[in-house]
Amino acid sequence: SPQGLVTIMNELPADQYFDLRPSETGTSISGLWGHFTTFVQNQLLPLAHADVIHPDIRAGFDYTANIMAKQDGSDMVLVDLESLVEFPDHKPPDSDVHNRYLVDVQGNAFTFVCLQCYVVAVYWSQGRSQLEDNLSKQAESVESVVG
User: Fold this and answer.
1) Sheet holding 64-69, edge to edge
2) Residue 86 pairs with which residues in a beta bridge?
3) Distances from the Cα of 39 to the Cαs of 5, 13, 46, 107, in angstroms?
4) Contact 139/103 with Cβ under 8 angstroms?
5) Burial class (CB in 10 A: 0-12, 13-18, 19+), 32
6) How many Cβ atoms are within 10 Å of 62's Cβ, its own excluded?
7) Under a CB-based contact definition with an 8 Å cutoff, are residues 86 and 55 in contact?
8) Other CB atoms within 10 A of residue 6 CB
9) E strands along 4-138, which residues?
10) Please, which residues bridge with residue 20 across strands?
């Protein structure tokens, strides 16, 4: 059967939603964390209940991939929906030269979401660029606590 790529995105007003760039929002980290917490509760946790994850949320204080938000960082929305995958089927891309993806996460979809939150918290609080190596190794050490 023929194979192809289908891109599924949320349709958002272009003049109201922007790439999430925490360093440019003018909102404090604690304010952004409040918005991120709402995002996780309303979008990532319902997916985790269905054993579905979005492995392509790549943290960075300069740019957090696949989350769009209003200019002040509020009303965060998940985009790049073709990246959604059932947790047991998750495999990071072979071409991950910057090690930006969580790998070998044991547990379940909730463990994965918890580790994503950990990585976002560290990157944002330390002002780390998205292109710096991901915290997968540190996340793996935290996994035993949350898994």
Assistant:
1) 18-20, 64-69, 77-78
2) 52
3) 27, 18, 11, 22
4) no
5) buried
6) 15
7) no
8) 6
9) 18-20, 52-53, 64-69, 77-78, 85-86
10) 64
Tell me the two tokens of residue 92: 């990071």
pLDDT in tens, 73-107: 899 999 988 889 999 887 776 666 556 677 778 88
Tokens representing 119 are: 């990585």
* CB 67 within 8 Å of CB 124: no
- Against a cut of 0.90, is the pTM above it? no
Rounded to whole angstroms, the Cα distance separating 122 from 50 reads 27
Token code pair at residue 61? 């204080």
- In order of 27, 97, 117, the CA distances from 21 in angstroms are 11, 22, 16
Q: Is 68 helix (H, G, I), strand (E, B) or coil?
A: strand
**Burial class of residue 103 in the structure, from the number of CB atoms within 10 Å of its CB (0-12 exposed, 13-18 middle, 19+ buried):** middle
Dig out the tokens for 52 from the structure: 């579905």
Whose CA is closest to 23, among 124, 145, 100? 124
What angle do the packed helices 109-126 and 136-146 form, to 10 degrees?
130
